[in-house]
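Reminder: ligand-aware prediction takes two inputs, not one.
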Amino acid sequence: MRSPQAQLPAIHRLLAHPRLVAARGLHGAGQVLTAAREAVATARQQLASGAPAPALDDLVERALAALAARARSAYPSVLNATGVLVHTNLGRAPRRTVETGRYLALEVDLETGERGERLGPVVDRLIRYFGCEAATVVTNNAAALVLLLAARAARRQVVVSRGELVEIGGSFRLPEIMAAAGADLVEVGCTNRTRTDDYARAIGPDTAALLVVHRSNFHMDGFVSSPGLDELVALARERGVEVWVDQGSGCHLDLSVYGLRREPTVREILATGAEIVLFSGDKLLGGAQAGILVGTAAAIEPLRGHPLRRALRPDKSVLAALAATLDAHLAERHDEVPLYRLLAVSQADLRRRARRLAARLRRAGVAASIVATRSVVGGGTTPDQSLPSWGLALRGGQGLARRLRDQAVPVVGRVEEGHVILDLRAVFEDEDALLLASVVAAVAGEP
Ligand SMILES: *Cc1c(COP(=O)(O)O)cnc(C)c1O
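Here is what comes back for the chain with pyridoxal-5'-phosphate:
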């Protein structure tokens, strides 16, 4: 009997196959060689566990499939049919990325030709939009907190309620961030209740600030209480320390307009007298990933000279995008920001689109029904709330969900009780035709 090895073709025979020869032009000879070797190695393992030897053409197919998978865009655009508007795994707030491939006036004053201030245009817009004295921007909110603590509270104490020692997704844990930044965490109160008095007793000569952290991704109910921000500010004033608020979500307008509960906006928090408010640029602001700090000049100025600010500075495309988002909000054209366009779509419109899609799917031979569903904003915002929405229900489970993700235009949905639910809340109307095509292809390809 021939050894298992001998049943497999030699690599050079595989490489001489016309389709793999042709593939070199597109993928390069090195990648083709790697894919051929991997196809043979996989087949060898399968042989060892008793599978039959594949034909030469099969191995070529497998190598070509591996090359095609690798050639797919590193970060493909997807249709978000999850019903989660600010979806951390899908890049939080949606953004139309425009890469012009050209230079931009990043650090030059076009009038004088002199060197300009890189963050200037964004800072100027932040000051106007939030009505504050000073502002700055770094790569994300975690970085904003690190910079703030390192610049203002290194080897000093920062007082935080035990009810606010949060973990945000992606390994942001407040006590660990504070330790990394060199600040001394002083915990006060209990998980469910913290009083102004608890803060008062904790303030000492080494205290830099009281830090209030928004419970972005969980909700507490029952025997709970925490002091109002104005009480904390009054206490802090009296004792000569500052109040910093990690507001996280960047809520900046009245959410009840969109059917959500109102929550304090950045402006309202600043109005209580808190010295600094920090938040993400890609949550409820609906912009690019960034960490934004707004507040008084005295509190923010010391951050300017800190070496970490240079290490944490955002990319030019982020700054340009953030400025554009702020311009839309400043002009009260919130619906120009994609997140708000999605939030503003009426239930009637979602239902009409679901019906039209279901009818078209049925004409294409795909059984689909429309379902009333509930969407969430998500991404560490409005944790206990949802919005009514409409979607499609397709019979199927994880298999169909995977096929939908495998399409040229991937669709990400959710599986519920033997159905794949495609919530239309976070699908732009001009994506409906793409959604239809991907669903038809995914269902047709089902085993
Ligand atoms: C989201 C969030 C963070 C982390 O923000 P990133 O921009 O992801 O770094 C920190 N604190 C709070 C309260 C948050 O909600």
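The chain has three domains: 9-71, 79-92+345-443, 120-334. The radius of gyration is 27 Å. We will return to this case in the review session.
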